[in-house]
Amino acid sequence: MKPQAADSVAAGPAVDTAAAPGDRGTARTERLSARSGLAVPLTSAGLAIVILSAWQYLPPLFGVPKYVIPQVTDLLSEGVRMWMQENLLHHFISTATMSVLGFVLGSALGAAFGYALGLLPTVERVLSPYILALQIVPKVAFAPLFILWFGYNALPKVTVTVLVVFFPILVNVLQAMRMMDRDMVNLARACNMSRTKIFWKIMVPFSMPNLLAGLRIGTTLAVIGITVGELVGGETGLGYLISFGQGQANTAMVFDAIALLTVIGIAMYWVVAYIEARVLHYVPRAVGGEQAW
Predict the structure, then answer these.
(1) pLDDT digits (tens, 9 = 90+) for 104-116
(2) Separation of first and last alpha carbons in the chain
């Protein structure tokens, strides 16, 4: 009995020592991942500092006048003036609200038409030439026409934004419906699932990556659409400030309005990206500096 006990005692430490290298490897991987996760924002911040410093000091160094490229300090002082005298907050809220509204309406309509045409392939083939024609036509070219139809109000701006956002969502959803796993659908039918359950339990989850990818594209296009509407016939919003600043030869005002438009677009993109990460949590992603290939 004693030799067996000795063998068991001797075997115990061997298991612990064998597990130790794995633990050390895991800890090292976590440290490397933490360092790489911290390095990315620090590098981005450093790059932003370099760009802003070059913007501040290089134009005067090369003799570029301020009405062509104003310095960063000029942009800040003009932003304060616009806040105090031009009611900048009102224009910012107007553009942000119209952008979100146009994005939501365009996304809802694009997804609805995409699913409907995916479920009705015959109708999709009939309407395909017209959808292609509308997709080719520059949507921003409709802005003057909408102003003639609806007048100088928020409706033309929202309509242009809806049109710009509509087609990427439609195309992405329709492409997902075309690539649907028909074997899975047939299996669900064999299990006596209703068409409603097949749609919500199989088709919608299958198309979700395409839909969310289209939504990410739509966030950037929504800001473009609302800006075009405000440039052409708006009386409020950041696009109107760009047009007003151009008429006054106020380059700093134009740059400030463009910067705020970028902030709106980035905020909308981050919201959609966060929703995508939560909804598609089951999709494997590259972590840290891991290569995708």
Answers:
(1) 999 999 999 999 9
(2) 56
